[in-house]
Amino acid sequence: MPDDIDQSSFASILEGVRKMRESYDAPNQPTATNSSKSGVSEQQGSIRPSEQPQVTKEVQSQQQEASTAQSRAETSSSEGRNTLNTTGQIQKNRHRTNRPVGSRRIRDNVQTYTAVQVANSQKGNPLLESPSMKLTSWAYNSQILSDYYINATLQVLFLSLKYHKLRPEYVWRRIEKMKGSSIVEESQNDEVLRVLLVVVDIDSPQDSIRSLSSICMRHDLSIVVAWSFEEAGNYIAYFKSNEMARSKVDSSIQGLKKEDYNSTIVSSLTTVRAVNKTDVANLLANCKSFKRIVTQASENDGLAQIQGLGERKLLNLRAAFTEPFIFNKDYDKDKTDV
């Protein structure tokens, strides 16, 4: 080793290199032997002091790259865990949302109350004294917005035409108050059948019923007309007694609907009084089309020769095809207004 080299500075350099090696070597790597140390010492002795700062910078850059790679790995692993946690939370929330909840989904055959829920405003209504209502369990409920709450899919508003004549704005306020619901906490559901039960207790109710029908069409209500309080009570009792067999009641009322041409004509013409299915079959056999049936019945041309069609049936057919579509309407006035 040359004598002009400062031993103290050389020893400090060796000590720094040794520390850096120990920091980067594996923990289980065996320590260098005395012979290797001497070899390293001899090798380091050939290195000039001016080159040592460059080695240190390279080691520092390697150290920075290693720390950066480690931090990136930790970040990616944490992001992966967060993604897994987020995905698991979404799946858990989705599973929780897909579970059937009674308050969200209104089923057709669910009985919410065993008794008819009656609003407090109906106290003293003669409907509640009808024989059918005496056989039906009912109870007052201040929470409902309709007058008679059958279940979650059927609610009834009650209206007397005599009261409607005195206060025509009442039905508007009741519909506005309902807002598509019959309980304050319950959201609107399009499957709910809302019925306006009207009792006719006045003379000449045609105009009132016509205006109420228009209101029901605009506000998605079904109108049911009763000619006495007893009949109105029968409707309420019938609604409650058949609430658990809604689909069965619908099928029994509607029956099997056929959509072929002949069945449609038969169902249309049999609505004329005294005309039966046999008469319709004979009309189709002779006239061949519905248009010719209407034309010949209106002009009274040749239908009298068909078997089974007497004078009364022919008069009913002619009246059905020639009378105005809407009774009590002045069509001449409409033409002059145009």
TrEMBL record:
Gene3D superfamilies per record: 3.40.50.10130, 5' to 3' exonuclease, C-terminal subdomain
Biased composition (Low complexity): 58-74
Entry's localization field: Nucleus
Superkingdom in the source lineage: Eukaryota
Compositional bias segments (type: Basic residues): 92-104
Residues of the ERCC1-like central domain: 116-240
GO cellular component, one term: nucleotide-excision repair factor 1 complex
Pfam families per UniProt: Rad10
Keyword set, alphabetical order: DNA damage, DNA repair, DNA-binding, Nucleus
Positions in coiled-coil regions: none
GO molecular function: damaged DNA binding; single-stranded DNA binding
Region Disordered: start-end pairs: 1-109
NCBIfam families, A to Z: rad10
Entry similarity comment: Belongs to the ERCC1/RAD10/SWI10 family.
Record-given protein name: ERCC1-like central domain-containing protein
Species the sequence originates in: Candidozyma duobushaemuli
